[in-house]
Specification:
The chain is 44% helix and 19% strand. The longest helix has 14 residues. It has a single domain, classed as Vaccinia Virus protein VP39 (Rossmann fold). It is globular. α3 packs across α4. A hairpin with a 4-residue loop joins β6 and β7. A 7-stranded mixed β-sheet has the order 3-2-1-4-5-7-6, sandwiched between helices. The chain is built from 9 helices and 7 strands. The model has no long low-confidence stretch (mean pLDDT 91). It is α/β, with parallel strands linked by helices.
Length: 213
């Protein structure tokens, strides 16, 4: 994750939960059905879970409540502090990111993330999925929920729509962060031995569920 994105999350920690609740009009559609998306990711995950970019711990709390063992990774100090204050003390939360992180002390059957994978370039996404493929046994899952587009035309159209609606912060995010497409992600997953399906959850966010073959 680039330093500029980490700085954003350091400053965003105090207002993050308000934003995901849909109070920011520009990002209302991005976070539409937020709770349902988290519940669906948790439902699709297994019993021992490695979570990347846990933020303030919203998905982590759902996973824990469902009786799953969770190992959380979060690079932002401010976000980690928020999560530690919110979550039960028996949840492991470590400093790290999608590419560099402490290995869990036991095998995991699922690797999950919400609203974070787009901070990696496509090359970094490829490298990350390769790492996860080496960690998961056959039948293990990657379950990521994030903004992703069916193709580059759909991506460009969403940027134009955001500008027409004068959602300039959203448009800037779409133009400067590393959002990708189904085609790219399907190729990456297949390259590393995963069979992937994509499920649309709102106008921006899809769940990418990839099962190790």
């Amino acid at each position: 994750m680039g330093r500029e994105f980490l700085d954003v999350f350091e400053g965003w920690a105090s207002d993050y939960d308000t934003t995901v609740s849909g109070h920011d009009v520009e990002y209302k559609e991005v976070f539409q059905n937020y709770s349902g998306i988290l519940e669906e990711v948790a439902e699709r995950s297994g019993s021992t879970v490695l979570e990347f970019g846990l933020g303030t711990g919203n998905l982590t709390a759902i996973l824990h409540k469902a009786g799953k063992k969770v190992y959380g990774i979060e690079p932002s100090n401010a976000m980690r502090r928020k999560a530690i204050d919110k979550l039960p003390g028996d949840i492991s939360i470590s400093d790290g990111d999608f590419l560099e992180f402490p290995a869990p002390p036991e095998p995991v059957d699922s690797i999950v993330s919400t609203y974070a994978f787009h901070h990696l370039t496509d090359e970094e996404k490829d490298k990350a999925v390769g790492i996860y493929g080496s960690m998961l046994a056959k039948g293990g899952k990657i379950v990521f929920a994030d903004t992703v587009f069916t193709d580059r035309d759909a991506y460009a159209k969403k940027i134009d729509e955001s500008k027409q609606r004068h959602y300039l912060s959203l448009a800037q995010d779409l133009e400067t962060e590393y959002y990708t497409t189904h085609v790219v992600m399907k190729e990456i997953f297949e390259k590393h031995g995963f069979d992937a399906v994509f499920t649309q959850m709102n106008p921006f966010v899809w769940i990418m569920e990839a099962v190790k073959q």
